[in-house]
Amino acid sequence: xxxxxxxxxxxxxxxxxxxxxxxxxxxxxxxxxxxxxxxxxxxxxxxxxxxxxxxxxxxxxxxxxxxxxxxxxxxxxxxxxxxxxxxxxxxxxxxxxxxxxxxxxxxxxxxxxxxxxxxxxxxxxxxxxxxxxxxxxxxxxxxxxxxxxxxxxxxxxxxxxxxxxxxxxxxxxxxxxxxxxxxxxxxxxxxxxxxxxxxxxxxxxxxxxxxxxxxxxxxxxxxxxxxxxxxxxxxxxxxxxxxxxxxxxxxxxxxxxxxxxxxxxxxxxxxxxxxxxxxxxxxxxxxxxxxxxxxxxxxxxxxxxxxxxxxxxxxxxxxxxxxxxxxxxxxxxxxxxxxxxxxxxxxxxxxxxxxxxxxxxxxxxxxxxxxxxxxxxxxxxxxxxxxxxxxxxxxxxxxxxxxxxxxxxxxxxxxxxxxxxxxxxxxxxxxxxxxxxxxxxxxxxxxxxxxxxxxxxxxxxxxxxxxxxxxxxxxxxxxxxxxxxxxxxxxxxxxxxxxxxxxxxxxxxxxxxxxxxxxxxxxxxxxxxxxxx
Length: 533
Ligand code: GLY
Ligand code: MN
Ligand code: MN
What we know:
Helix content: 40-55%
Bound molecules: glycine, manganese (II) ion
Mean pLDDT: 93
Largest sheet: 5 strands, mixed
Number of domains: 3
Distance between the termini: 67 Å
Strand content: 5-15%
Number of helices: 19
């Protein structure tokens, strides 16, 4: 009896200690993830939009090689995450419009997921597996992804199969894509060309034809683009009629891709309250980081060191990642829109453009500040900065329900053009694009350049950036005194009924406030490390 009691006590102690161990672990994990009810609600919302007799097929992203046998940190496909909460590779989710009747009961979704593998998991981390997806994510029909190829699901019987473009590098997802191709007729085209065709069909609108032509100029001179049946007529005559023809031809051939894009844009472009909360956190964290970097910046610092301060602050607040590769560009580097090298060892007395933001639980912020490293804007820098600021202020006023997206762009061009003419940098308004080559806004969410209905009016609870910018690289046809000035101010707003809510308020925007913040002290002023030997 005694011995049993001892074993029982030992077992109990053990259970108690295991329990408190697991409680310690869960107590120290974040508690603000999206819930399985959120993801289920999104699947129901999708079903409502799907056409009759249709199925949506969503694949996980492939893994990407970083170096030989080392992969990049895995980033889930935002669509798959949105509809399921699943963050692993080797998976495919099928969402049916109507209830299906199978041998083992009725269902309206099937999920094929990465199988458990204790040996691999010891090396590369935990996997949810079939049981975990059932219990944690709330799906009932879950199978190992190896079963997809031979599963009895017959995709040919559906009037529309909605799916996204298959990436060029299929990697570890090749087996699942091939199984899909065997189950349904996937129209094929050179993938690079198809990507461009899809992008234009999905995101082209009469207001951005000019920018499309400039952006793809090099490609459009190549035979595979200019002779392409979809692109040829549009390249020849880039107007709204050719664009409409391209779209309707695209819809006829790639109906599944077009419908997929439409539905993702409609759903993901308007944020649910839980999503707004996560974006707010991502933006608040990013703005606090910008403020700290302003306090810390000194002419002797390197671009990389500034990047490091951002990333430290992001992680201090629990952000898992950056929403995109950080851009920290001093002087001339500030004129390179997506400068990512960040390898200048001393920023000196230059203007530093910093487009850096956090990703929190999958949701990205997108914030840019442009700061004089020595704390004082020169007269020329100040003039450009004020112009960009003024454009931003005017665009904020348009950020409300019902305003066509294109008005934001038109207003930005108008203000920047007038300002650049006044400063003597351009002589006619149409030259504004020389110094303002990008768009003023994009949706922001699970993707930094998020899905959304770009051709339509703004709606409540959309989240977009407002990011005018002027970039005057050396050699530009204007007075030398403007050369190498690159200024972008980028903020994130939630669209409301009558006005927007600015989320990135913790990062100063006015030039006077930026100068004040640079004069302030930072805890990083105290960071002293030994020199390398
Ligand atoms: N950070 C990329 C962008 O501003 O769009
Ligand atoms: Mn942006
Ligand atoms: Mn940005």
